[in-house]
User: Fold this.
Amino acid sequence: MNYKKLKKKLKKAVSPYDFQAIKAQYAAQYNIRLKEKEDIAGIKRTAMLALDILNHVEERIKPGITTNDINTMVEELTRKNNARSAPLNYQGFPKSVCTSVNNVICHGIPDETVLKDGDIVNVDVTPIVNGYYADVSKTFFVGTPGKDAQKIVAVARECLSRGVRQAIPGNTIGDIGYAIQRYAEGQGCSVVREYVGHGVGFDFHEPPQVPHFGKKNQGLTLVPGMVFTIEPMINLGKHNLHVLPDHWTVVTDDGSLSAQFEHTVLVTDEGFEILTPYD
Ligand code: MF3
Ligand code: CO
Ligand code: CO
Assistant:
């Protein structure tokens, strides 16, 4: 690790080599719960189930299925593994998974909507195993994608990758957002502001918030043991959005396509580890 860089950003009395001291500082100052070895093992176990579920769905995505069919798949696999789905009844959310189609940015509610050739659909799963949470999502093509679908999915995927590479000790939350925003806007796309990544592991949404836009060197400093999501929502058009009357479904104002990829990421001594590795 770059202990020198980290040292400069910690409180005077706190050594960059002293995990317990940093843990106490982050709890007191930010309400952030750094994860110990055994916690990380638990989160990884959940993450493996999350990936199994996502792969299972991916293999079955095709024109003609409904988003409710996806919900059923997620429910069955979750139950078979003696796990629970975090979204179910979360602040009143009625289903076990979010399915966000085309211009839906996030929090799409599974229903009788039939997926058709050329659609894109983000599937966002968050199981709970032994009290540990892991959060992962991917945007899938339904059948054969058109040019716009290919573009927004490629840009969103690359945004996640660039964000994750900034998640190293001594860097800041702002470094992550900056890398994502710079790439997305450079490609003529836009970054959603209202919804952000988040700490995860002991709970669905923990501090800190992880915006997908920002400035270099701003926000809190990343330290080993932090576990959070990076989940950029990228629009082909403008970033403006609104929520539908169902109080959940978030859509682009201009009707443009929106894509998202999400990982649960651990900051390690040496850099980062993706706890939900895919591709
Ligand atoms: N999984 C989403 C996230 O990435 C949160 C969904 S909240 C729900 O943070 F209630 F819609 F499930
Ligand atoms: Co999340
Ligand atoms: Co999620």
Observations:
- DSSP finds six helices and 17 strands in the chain.
- The radius of gyration is 18 Å.
- Residues 87, 90-91, 93, 98, 107, 124, 126, 135, 229, 231, 262 surround MF3 (ligand 1) (CB under 6 Å).
